[in-house]
């Protein structure tokens, strides 16, 4: 029932939306549908809170191939179903609450744009697919919706399709995530085939779903003798998640995805879709299990990405792109959490992050809406004219930086302490855990650099910009609501009934609620001090309307350039695509036209030469031609009879 | 049973074709009526197919119709027709494509009588191929498809139509001759005096491996050219570029499937030993076609050539799904043939409409067509996304099945077609970026009109199965499984 409302909104808006005045009605339909989904989701979440550890699974056959004696003794059955459990209830809350608020905000933010029916239709389709993804009860269904959210993201990044940069960003996003997607598909194959061929009659092939409670030990039993397969499958899954969640080395697309409307960035590229990769890792680790090598790779990717992305955020002059790098970095924390065995801690951070990151984007959206630029160095002094926005951004920034009692503190701190504990057991984790701590400092610095540049000081730096003003109530209400969530979402971890959502199997999860031993407290102190230092640095360099300039000959200039060029990853990938693969294609095309087809034409000319000699045979009488055809047939026939067996024997005997 | 529905179908198509030829400007109404009757007949066949399930291993099923045709002491040729799930799904494809093509080319003003007549003849031949159960009858229908398509390309085609039509004819004709010889060799080796399929399938699989292998080689070449398999594929892009839109739709949607169907029904099921013996060759050809088709497509500027090369890629996946030799693979191969039929049909329609509307199909000189022609843009998007395998559209379950079966059979080799999927996505996205996004480029100054009603309706006929069977592939799978796929390894 939850995905149905936005699905109906999608259908109705896409078919008749164009006829409605200015798309406003379509917008309100989408808002109402999202609101309905939100209410149902809250009810579901409350239901799950009331009954710890319960789940409901309903599934229907999608396609069924009856059993046959060979590869698939149990037959082959794919199902589509819904699994409502604590994890999906948690995710539903995130998706529908943020979805509803962003839809509402869009009414004001997108007011002046053309193509509104398309916008609301695509956003509704996205919401449908995202809800479907969250409720999936098996990997294949998960993949199905995974691709659908991807294509919605593609459309919405390219919403301003007449802009070449938007078109190219949309394409880039699709192709880069596609690389992850096909590897994810390979991972599904490994799980699926192993289950279908070596699983017992009660295995996946017969009952059709994999996100089943108690499945992880079962799968470990099936694959126990073959941890190589489990490792490979896990690595494929990690690749898929890295594509969607923009983790190193598939991170390049997310900053460019900021070409889409800011609302889309808030919903899809901050709160929900990019978090789907983390969600995938979490459900995989809970229901299927990773091997220790997989976990090391996950820790490495997550820990490195937190720091790597944060460094690029430090210098970027574009308000949205800074927040985009921040998203990559924060997703890195969640990935790290899964790697150190704290899947639910990762999902908790996903939960808090969704609110404060959507808040940051929507606040940035208010600024962009008001003054029409994304360049930080043209802004300034907006605190005076946009009080609500500046306060909201401040709340979001504090939550992101991890200052207690704001949301991000509780979830990030849990991850860091779990990471340190894990690193004490596995020394190989240490470098990545240290990077994750270093990223705390950078995070606080870059987000407050943005805040000071935008809101502090006396006036806007570029006087040609229009006078700033707050958006209407439809834009203010979501800001206020998200600010509240950004403050309290982290504190939810102390609410016993909410804790049941973070304990999917009805079993206590380490770190929930936080225990606060002396080590934990010391770690918290370190991270808060690091964050404070970051804010202080930002104030020293950019506070009060100052603009910090590097000295002309400063050694930091080349580094700054390297960071602005994003470590040349984008340039390198472009070169692989344009120079490498496209050149290969041109060469192949040449071979196709002139070598393969050339051979054909050569044969034709040879035949022509022969036929000149045989011209006398061309009598123009049909029966003669018929005779030639028969003769030709006989010739082939004889060749096959006489020569064929020798050829085949030479091939390998029979 | 009882009602010879297949013969009735063939007869109605034949009557419709004949009537179209003489109906002149009213031919389109005749053709539409015939197509609608054909759709109804197909629906009737499906109602029969959803009846009781067949026993495993039972070969051609449904309403077998056999009449003695040529009876000599040493030769028995029958008029034998019959369908199972595999044929039925492909006949359904024929019905969709036929109706769509006729509606799409509703306003064909250049000798409409022969045009619609030839289209109906192509449908007639295809239904014949999908249901014939006698070597000679099969060959007759097989050739009967070739001739109308030769005229469609040669008469209604583009500037190099003579070259393209001849190339098409010679390639496929040589291939059919080799195929016929292969089948005849099989008949004589099996010691049967009857050319009937049931006689063949009872004896041929027991023949020595060497004989089977020789025959399989001949059949692989004969059907492979039709697929087309690299390196025997160069007729396809030329034929498509020169063919009129309706011709392209039938060529890609239907004619390529004849190769796939033939290889399954008259190849691997008749000479399984030879097939398994030479399976490595099939794998190599499949991987080659997949990779070559996709990579060369990336370099194309002509929209039709691009779609043509993507067809080579997709039919390569079909061949791969056949090569893996499993029930899932075979199922996926048939499903993918259906999927590719409707999707490539739609893509050739949009290419044709781009050409009519803007006077060129050159991707490098067109751009930003969305504001002026939103319907066309939407169709291009649906077609491209379906072709690159987006879930909830019809190709996805088929490609998923094919690649899963590949993994089960040859494990990590599956990474080749999987990574090629990225290239496929890349060229479709590149095409969409050029055509749909960005500022308008190369558009007529007075602005283009969005598509006329009949072109829209023709596309809509194909969008229905693309979406319907994408969401509910089980409808087709149940039917396809009602075939020798059961009992297959």
Give a brief rundown of this model.
Chain A has helices at 4-16, 24-50, 86-109, 116-135, 139-157, 164-198, 204-207, 215-223, 227-244, 253-256, 262-271, 275-288, 292-315, 319-339, 343-371, 382-385, 387-401, 407-425, 430-455, 473-488, 496-499, 518-542, 556-564, 569-613, 622-652, and strands at 56-65, 76-84.
What's the topology here?
The complex is a heterodimer of chains A (654) and B (489).
Chain A (H helix, E strand, L loop, with lengths): L3 H13 L7 H27 L5 E10 L10 E9 L1 H24 L6 H20 L3 H19 L6 H35 L5 H4 L7 H9 L3 H18 L8 H4 L5 H10 L3 H14 L3 H24 L3 H21 L3 H29 L10 H4 L1 H15 L5 H19 L4 H26 L17 H16 L7 H4 L18 H25 L13 H9 L4 H45 L8 H31 L2
Chain B lengths: L4 H19 L3 H23 L15 E7 L4 E6 L3 H20 L7 H20 L3 H22 L4 H29 L7 H7 L5 H18 L8 H8 L2 H24 L3 H6 L1 H20 L4 H21 L3 H32 L15 H14 L7 H16 L4 H22 L16 H19 L2 H7 L9
Antiparallel strand pairs in B: 1-2
Percent of residues in helices of chain B comes to over 70%
Order of helices and strands of chain B: HHEEHHHHHHHHHHHHHHHHH
- Residue share in helix of chain A: over 70%
Distance between the termini of chain A: 60 Å
The largest pleated sheet of chain B is described as: 2 strands, antiparallel
Give the largest interface.
Answer: A-B, 72 and 79 residues
Number of helices of chain B: 19
Q: Uncertain regions of chain A: pLDDT < 50 for 5+ in a row?
A: 200-208
The outline of chain B comes out as globular
- Poorly predicted runs of 5 or more residues of chain B: 51-62
Percentage of β-strand residues of chain A: under 5%
Q: Please compute the radius of gyration of chain A using only Cα atoms.
A: 29 Å
Name the structural class of chain A. Answer: mainly alpha
Spatial strand order of the main sheet of chain A: 1-2
Number of strands of chain B: 2
Q: Can you give the mean pLDDT of chain B?
A: 88
Average of the residue pLDDT scores of chain A: 82
């Amino acid at each position: 029932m939850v995905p149905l409302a936005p699905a109906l909104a999608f259908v109705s808006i896409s078919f008749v939306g164009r006829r409605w005045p200015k798309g406003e009605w379509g917008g309100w339909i989408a808002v109402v549908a999202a609101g309905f989904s939100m209410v149902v989701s809250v009810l579901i979440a409350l239901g799950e809170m009331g009954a710890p550890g319960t789940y409901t699974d309903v599934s229907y056959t999608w396609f069924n191939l009856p059993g046959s004696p060979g590869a698939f003794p149990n037959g082959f059955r794919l199902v589509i179903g819904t699994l409502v459990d604590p994890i999906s209830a948690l995710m539903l809350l995130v998706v529908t609450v943020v979805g509803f608020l962003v839809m509402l905000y869009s009414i004001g933010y997108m007011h002046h744009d053309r193509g509104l029916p398309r916008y609301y239709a695509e956003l509704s389709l996205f919401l449908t697919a995202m809800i479907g993804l969250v409720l999936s009860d098996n990997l294949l269904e998960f993949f199905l919706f995974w691709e659908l959210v991807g294509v919605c993201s593609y459309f919405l990044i390219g919403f301003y399709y007449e802009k070449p940069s938007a078109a190219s960003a949309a394409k880039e996003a699709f192709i880069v995530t596609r690389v992850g997607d096909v590897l994810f598909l390979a991972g599904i194959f490994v799980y699926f085939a192993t289950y279908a061929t070596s699983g017992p009659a009660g295995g996946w092939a017969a009952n059709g779903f994999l996100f089943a409670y108690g499945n992880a030990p079962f799968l470990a039993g099936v694959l126990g003798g073959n941890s190589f397969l489990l490792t490979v499958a896990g690595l494929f899954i990690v690749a898929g998640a890295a594509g969607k969640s923009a983790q190193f080395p598939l991170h390049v697309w997310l900053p460019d995805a900021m070409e889409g409307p800011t609302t889309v960035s808030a919903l899809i590229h901050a709160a929900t879709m990019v978090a789907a990769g983390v969600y995938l890792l979490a459900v995989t680790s809970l229901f299927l299990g990773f091997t220790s090598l997989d976990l090391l790779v996950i820790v490495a990717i997550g820990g490195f990405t937190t720091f790597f992305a944060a460094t690029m955020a430090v210098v970027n002059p574009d308000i949205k792109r800074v927040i985009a790098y921040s998203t990559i970095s924060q997703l890195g924390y969640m990935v790290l959490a899964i790697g150190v065995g704290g899947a639910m801690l990762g999902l908790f951070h996903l939960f808090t992050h969704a609110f404060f990151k959507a808040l940051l984007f929507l606040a940035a959206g208010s600024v962009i809406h008001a003054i029409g630029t994304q360049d930080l160095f043209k802004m300034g002094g907006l605190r005076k004219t946009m009080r609500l926005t500046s306060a909201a951004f401040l709340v979001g920034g504090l939550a992101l930086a991890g200052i207690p009692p704001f949301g991000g503190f509780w979830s990030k701190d849990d991850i860091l302490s779990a990471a340190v504990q894990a690193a004490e057991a596995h020394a190989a984790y240490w470098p990545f855990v240290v990077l994750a701590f270093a990223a705390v400092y950078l995070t606080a610095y870059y987000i407050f650099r943005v805040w000071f540049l935008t809101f502090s000081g006396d006036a806007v730096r570029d006087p040609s910009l229009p006078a700033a003003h707050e958006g209407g109530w439809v834009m203010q209400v979501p800001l206020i609501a998200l600010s509240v969530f950004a403050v309290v979402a982290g504190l939810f971890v102390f609410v016993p009934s909410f804790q049941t959502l973070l304990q999917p199997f009805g079993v206590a999860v380490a770190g929930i609620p936080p225990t606060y031993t002396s080590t934990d407290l010391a770690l918290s102190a370190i991270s808060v001090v690091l964050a404070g230092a970051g804010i202080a640095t930002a104030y020293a360099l950019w506070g009060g309307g100052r603009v910090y300039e590097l000295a002309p000959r400063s050694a930091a200039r080349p580094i700054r350039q390297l960071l602005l060029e994003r470590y040349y990853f984008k340039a390198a990938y472009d070169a692989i695509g344009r120079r490498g693969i496209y050149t290969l294609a041109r060469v192949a095309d040449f071979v196709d036209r002139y070598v393969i087809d050339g051979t054909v034409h050569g044969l034709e000319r040879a035949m022509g030469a022969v036929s000149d000699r045989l011209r006398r045979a061309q009598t123009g009488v049909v029966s003669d031609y018929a005779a030639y055809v028969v003769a030709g047939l006989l010739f082939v026939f004889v060749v096959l009879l006489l020569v064929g067996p020798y050829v085949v024997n030479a091939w390998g005997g029979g | 049973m009882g009602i010879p529905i297949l013969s009735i179908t063939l007869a109605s198509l034949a009557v419709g074709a004949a009537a179209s030829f003489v109906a002149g400007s009213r031919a389109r109404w005749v053709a539409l009526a015939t197509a609608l009757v054909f759709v109804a007949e197909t629906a009737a066949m499906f109602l029969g197919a959803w009846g009781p399930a067949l026993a495993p291993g039972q070969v051609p099923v449904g309403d077998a119709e056999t009449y003695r045709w040529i009876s000599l002491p040493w030769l028995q040729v029958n008029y034998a027709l019959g369908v199972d799930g595999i044929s039925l799904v492909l006949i359904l494809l024929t019905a969709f494509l036929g109706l769509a093509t006729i509606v799409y080319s509703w306003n064909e003003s250049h000798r409409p009588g022969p045009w619609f007549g030839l289209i109906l003849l192509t449908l007639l031949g295809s239904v014949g191929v999908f249901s014939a159960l006698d070597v000679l009858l099969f060959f007759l229908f097989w050739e009967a498809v070739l001739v109308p398509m030769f005229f469609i390309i040669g008469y209604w085609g583009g500037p190099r139509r003579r070259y393209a039509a001849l190339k098409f004819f010679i390639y496929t004709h040589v291939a059919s001759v080799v195929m016929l010889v292969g089948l005849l060799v099989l008949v004589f080796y099996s010691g049967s005096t009857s050319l009937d399929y049931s006689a063949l399938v009872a004896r041929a699989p027991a023949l020595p491996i060497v004989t089977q292998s020789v025959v399989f080689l001949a059949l692989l070449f004969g059907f492979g050219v039709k697929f087309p398999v690299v390196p025997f594929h160069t007729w396809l892009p030329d034929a498509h570029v020169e063919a009129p839109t309706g011709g392209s739709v039938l060529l890609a949607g239907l004619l390529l499937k004849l190769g796939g169907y033939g290889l399954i029904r008259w190849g691997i099921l008749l000479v399984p030993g030879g097939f398994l013996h030479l399976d490595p060759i099939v794998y190599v050809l499949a991987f080659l076609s997949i990779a070559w088709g996709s990579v060369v497509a990336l370099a194309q500027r002509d929209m039709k050539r691009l779609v043509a090369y993507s067809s080579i890629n997709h039919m390569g996946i079909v061949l791969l799904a056949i090569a893996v030799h499993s029930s899932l693979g075979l199922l996926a191969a048939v499903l993918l043939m259906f999927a590719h039929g409707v999707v490539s049909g739609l893509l050739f329609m949009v290419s044709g409409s781009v050409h009519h509307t803007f006077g060129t199909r050159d991707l490098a000189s067109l751009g930003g067509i969305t504001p002026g022609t939103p319907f066309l843009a939407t169709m291009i998007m649906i077609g491209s996304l379906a072709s690159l395998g987006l879930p909830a559209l019809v190709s996805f379950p088929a490609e998923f099945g094919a690649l899963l079966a590949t993994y089960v059979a040859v494990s990590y080799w599956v990474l080749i077609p999987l990574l090629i999927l990225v290239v496929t996505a890349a060229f479709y996205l590149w095409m969409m970026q050029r055509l749909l996004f960005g500022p308008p480029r190369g558009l007529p100054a007075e602005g283009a009109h969005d598509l006329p009603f009949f072109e829209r309706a023709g596309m809509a006929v194909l969008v229905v199965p693309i979406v319907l069977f994408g969401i509910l592939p089980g409808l087709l799978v149940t039917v396809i499984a009602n075939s020798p796929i059961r009992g297959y390894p």
